């Protein structure tokens, strides 16, 4: 087993990558995953070990991981620990990955080990491991997550409190890079789950009113807190005040949830009519109208933005029509676009048109339209193959994909797996060494065309 190939797989999602692996897991193709792992396919080995462990085949799961551990692949050690833990071999699991002092200085290692400790029921140890790293947003979030429903809310609040205080004072001191910037949000979240909703609303609301917060996420966390608990008056003040651009949608949704849909619609239309920058309020109104089945009105609300360079709601409206089963109307909207729009978005418009024609069952029309497009258009081959697949012409779709030398082999593999030919799909995938070699050649070719001061370039492993 080659650690260079393993690192390349992890870095670029090379080899039999996670989406293919998920498809195999969903179809219970565990033996295929095991066979692929024997060729050094890490994502297959990881999934195979987990599935075998869930089926009670602990020793087989460990055997799958062993060659990767022997090769020095650290992630395999952590997977082995998870298998051992699930098998009830708690001490062996913890000892197999227990970090030394240097390891505990790493926030990543501490995070992973704390997660394992928490699963083993050793929550005090998990909190101790995380505590030195709580000034990192994602570690503080991990602490809140792993202590949920564990009766540790007061302990967690004590750890969060000084960090929340620093966050609320940072803006006045113009310390915009303060960490952890999410401490106020998490403080309110823990108060809420502890049943202290009024306190969460009071503390976070005071911070928002005074402008004592650093990031927009804190504002959104407050709006969502009010929405979850139907605090309409606080939401009205927030949503129609100076922060309406970010929070009016939450007030409107709360009104709708309270059965006051007409009021929700009215307040959104009022802001669209009066605001200097009204387009931020259009999408909440479109969603509201869509939920009521008033699709034509929803389209009309978004229409003024359809040719914009920014704040454009065209794609969102197209998907709204699709979800409503109105593919023909979506195609008609595509066909209404100006020549300038078509020139600026040729592949996006063309591929979406093929997709929507296919969704409408207009297969022959979709293929005929595809033939009018440049043969080298990105994504065209896959779009045509999907139409052929939907027509039941599987072999024609496979032939089309195989004939395009620029396509990733995974496109053929996905199609085969969808149609119950998983073994054929995996057998047809190039080896790791072949894929890695192609990746190196592409990286080298791209780098050769870059300037001497440009940073190194690495392509995706999804070859």
Write the layout of secondary structure elements.
Layout: H1 3-12, H2 18-26, H3 30-37, H4 42-54, H5 58-70, H6 74-86, H7 90-97, H8 101-104, H9 107-119, H10 123-130, H11 137-146, H12 153-170, H13 183-193, H14 197-210, H15 216-228, H16 232-239, H17 244-257, H18 261-274, H19 282-291, H20 295-302, H21 314-323, H22 327-335, H23 339-344, H24 346-359, H25 363-370, H26 380-390, H27 394-403, H28 409-418, H29 422-427, H30 432-448
Helix pairs in contact: 2-4, 3-4, 4-5, 4-6, 5-6, 6-7, 9-10, 12-13, 13-14, 13-15, 14-15, 15-17, 16-17, 17-18, 18-19, 19-20, 20-21, 21-22, 22-24, 24-25, 24-26, 25-26, 26-27, 27-28
Overall, the morphology is flat
Which class of secondary structure composition applies to the elements?
Answer: mainly alpha
Residue stretches low in confidence (pLDDT < 50, at least 5 long) are none
User: What oligomeric arrangement do these chains adopt?
Assistant: single chain
Separation of termini? 21 Å
Overall mean confidence score, pLDDT? 93
Quick recap of the structure?
By secondary structure, this protein is mostly helical. Among the domains are: 148-226; 230-324.
Plain-language structure description:
With 463 residues, the protein is an all-alpha fold. The chain is built from 30 helices and no strands. Helix content is 69%, strand content 0%. Among the domains are: 79 residues; 95 residues. α19 packs antiparallel against α20.
Features:
single chain, 463 residues, mainly alpha, 30 helices, 0% strand, flat
């Amino acid at each position: 087993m080659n650690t260079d190939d393993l690192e390349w797989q992890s870095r670029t999602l090379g080899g039999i990558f996670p989406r293919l692996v998920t498809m195999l897991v969903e179809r219970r193709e565990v033996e295929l995953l095991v066979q692929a792992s024997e060729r050094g396919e890490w994502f297959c080995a990881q999934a195979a070990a987990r599935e075998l462990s869930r089926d009670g085949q602990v020793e087989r799961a460990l055997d799958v991981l062993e060659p990767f551990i022997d090769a020095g692949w650290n992630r395999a050690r952590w997977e082995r620990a998870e298998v051992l833990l699930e098998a009830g071999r708690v001490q062996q699991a913890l000892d197999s990955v227990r970090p030394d002092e240097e390891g505990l200085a790493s926030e990543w290692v501490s995070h992973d080990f704390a997660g394992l400790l928490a699963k083993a029921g050793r929550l005090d140890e998990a909190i101790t491991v995380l505590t030195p790293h709580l000034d990192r947003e994602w570690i503080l979030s991990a602490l809140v997550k792993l202590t949920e429903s564990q009766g540790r809310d007061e302990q967690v609040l004590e750890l969060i409190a000084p960090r929340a205080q620093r966050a609320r004072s940072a803006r006045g001191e113009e310390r915009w890079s303060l960490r952890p910037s999410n401490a106020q949000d998490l403080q309110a979240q823990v108060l809420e789950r502890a049943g202290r909703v009024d306190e969460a609303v009071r503390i976070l609301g005071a911070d928002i009113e005074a402008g004592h917060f650093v990031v927009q996420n804190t504002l959104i966390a407050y709006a969502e807190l009010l929405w979850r608990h139907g605090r309409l008056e606080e939401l009205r003040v927030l949503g129609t005040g100076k922060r309406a651009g970010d929070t009016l949608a939450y007030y409107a949704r709360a009104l709708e949830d309270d059965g006051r849909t007409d009021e929700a619609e009215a307040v959104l239309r009022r802001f669209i009519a009066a605001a200097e920058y009204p387009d931020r309020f259009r999408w909440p109104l479109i969603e509201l109208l869509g939920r009521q089945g008033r699709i034509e009105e929803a389209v009309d609300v978004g229409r003024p933005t359809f040719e914009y360079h920014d704040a454009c709601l065209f794609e969102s409206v197209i998907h709204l029509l699709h979800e409503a089963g109105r593919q023909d109307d979506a195609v008609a909207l595509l066909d209404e676009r100006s020549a300038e729009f078509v020139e600026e978005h040729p592949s996006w418009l063309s591929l979406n048109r093929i997709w929507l024609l296919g969704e409408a069952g207009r297969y022959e029309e979709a293929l005929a339209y595809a033939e009018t497009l440049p043969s080298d258009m990105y994504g065209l081959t896959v779009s045509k193959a999907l139409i052929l697949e939907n027509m039941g012409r599987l072999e024609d779709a496979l032939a089309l994909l195989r004939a395009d030398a620029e396509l990733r082999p995974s496109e053929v593999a996905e199609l085969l797996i969808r149609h119950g030919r998983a073994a054929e799909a995996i057998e047809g995938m190039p080896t790791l060494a072949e894929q890695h070699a192609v990746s190196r050649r592409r990286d080298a070719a791209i780098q050769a065309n870059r300037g001497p001061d440009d940073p190194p370039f690495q392509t995706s492993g999804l070859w």
